[in-house]
Amino acid sequence: MNTSTHTPQRALRHVTLAALALLSAAHVQAGVSAEEAARLKTELTPLGGERAGNKDGSIPAWTGGHTAPIPGFKNGGKRPDPFAAEKPLYQITAANQAQYADKLSDGVKAMLKKYPESFKLNVYKTYRTAAAPQWVYDNTARNAVKGELKDLKPTGVYGGIPFPIPKSGAEAMWNHSLRWRGEAYHVAVKGIQTTADGRHVVTGVGSGDFQVPYYFKDGSVDKFDGNFWSIRLINSGPPLRAGEGIVGRDHIDGDKTQVWAYITGQRRVRKVPNACCDTPTPASAGISMFDQTDVFNGRLDRYDWKIVGKKEMLIPYNGNRLLATPEAEALDKHHLASDAMRWELHRVWVIEATLAAGKRHVAPKRRYYLDEDTWIAVLADHWDANGQLWQMGFSNPVVMPDLPGTTSPQMFGFYDLLSGVWYYDSALNDAAEQYKLVPRYADTTFTPEALVGDAVR
């Protein structure tokens, strides 16, 4: 028998089969075992954070979140700060930042260096306020076992965090996109761009209706059609933009996401052809990219995603203080006023995105910091094509016991570290209504036909 002829062929076949198996694994990631999912009732919180505090007690244990009503609050009104009487434990400045370097993102370090006289971190006591209804916890436990990631799209998940025990960076990012933020809500929208010389320019004022079909309490995996977030914005100002409108329906499959805009000059509703990624969004007057909404939003296939690790970091948190600060006091020349911000020490997932082969984006490298308790992307760093640290993204999670939950009511933005320009979306500071929970909207609310009916000029 001539084995020398067949052995290389067998070896090649084995190598090929192994390569195919690896390729298949890269496209499909299955849920965790029932034994591992049981950790969500013991050492992990129901949404996937670590229940225990850290060694020195600066991060406390999670004991159920903040669900007690905030005195004086009524749904549809201003949201008070439950920690208004507290003072900072310490302050981080450009002079002492080296002492805290391991707990600061690259973007925060760059801001401290760029604006040493004004940018400071007032660090407060840490509160783990994150919470959700029991049915969300139950769905999250089910998702942990049943959920799969196929070609970067989650399947078999509904009504809870899709991958509470993530095995990949892409799973963690879907946890952010499908985080708990209620079923339906209304936000008084206001966008502000600040120029490099400190002039605040209002880019849009209007009414925002939002719906999260993924979190319909009476829904199910079988009923869910893939549309997970719907939005309708109608501008009332500034005068140049009054009457503009935009409607969007985010889909699990990015190819099925649809966005329409009403253009006043044409008196027509048109479909936005590329409502994705680094395309400027009409809702921000072109200042922000589509995938910068809520720090990150949209499809994942432009990047390769990697879990860098989990670490303790100082992040914006329990940001009711910012909501309670009048706009004139909240806006500094080059950033949100340091005294209006509340920073706390929390554990975060660090997720790195590098441009995938054959893809393009103005930010070839990005890093996101996801709060372990809520999965909110609270900070982000973006590098440009020249490898320079370009932008720092931020959001401000707010305590909402009536939800219950800690979430970010569109209060996000970014600092351009190169040009000095910055953007603050949904400046709710002076709004009489700050994130109003509402009954479920009719599905027709988020259609181009409804947008036509709302046109005012």
From TrEMBL:
The keyword Flavoprotein does not apply. It comes from the Bacteria. Keywords: Signal. The keyword Signal applies. This is DUF1329 domain-containing protein. Residues 1-30 form the signal peptide.
